[in-house]
Please model this.
Amino acid sequence: MIEDQLHKQESMTFTEKKIADYFLQVQDKIKAQSAHQIASQLYVHPSMITRFCQKLGFQGYNDFQNQYIEEIQYRQTHFQTIDPNYPFAFQDKNVVIANKIGQLYHEIINDTLALISHDQLQKIVNAVLQAKTIYIYSAGVQADLAQTFKDKMIKIGKNVVVEKRMNELFYRASFCQQNCLFVIISYSGEVEAELRGIRKLTERHIPLLAITTYGENSLSKAADFVFWVSTRERMIQNLGDFAFNLSTLLILDILYVNVFNSDYNDHYQKKVSASQEFELFRKSDNALIK
Model:
């Protein structure tokens, strides 16, 4: 996210670090400031402000200003109670930890739902319905979460392939049929192996759905559709990828039920009849689940 880049200050000159520190200090007050006003306060030429914003990947100051304010508002309105990076402390008792994780899950779910719009979701559902085959790629444990999505989809007649080896993405993208959809799950959206495959998908005009962090990265810029995951965890300095995993699972479940609901009766009959035929001898003495 932008704030992370401003804190890191990697490969920045002395003047650029001064500009980054200023943005970190004033936060959303830059809404009322122009590039000329900021330049006069920092005793630099206005073009330095523009070049700094472009170095961060924006078209100019106005583009940076709008997205930085939007990011600040996102940060201020999510995760007010629990730090997703360190949701519990060493001295916490077992029950306290359990309740903190439960509260964290509530906040992750609310955060994820707030990042989904109706129009965006409908476009993604339409893309899934039109695809003959859906290829899902993830280099992390999220591939196991994608497997649960595949298991649900296959029972209503949808063909889903889950791949854990990101290196194979390029070759699949090179030779797959046109009537398919690729889904890439990536927190950073900057893994080189996935970017090579993405360039091939773009070249062949194969639709791509990204499940990635809120904000801009190479994956989200190239994708035709994007699901934003809850984005408050650091990539390394955390106690577990709670937010990314739960957010991904929720998104895939939401996608599945919307696909299911596109032809509810037909999908229900397919699922029940196939399950009855396959699970002939599956029984339970529990009256609640019979």
Observations:
- Residues 94-114 form the longest helix (21 residues).
- The mean pLDDT is 88.
- The two ends are 48 Å apart (CA to CA).
- The CA atoms of residues 140 and 164 lie 7 Å apart.
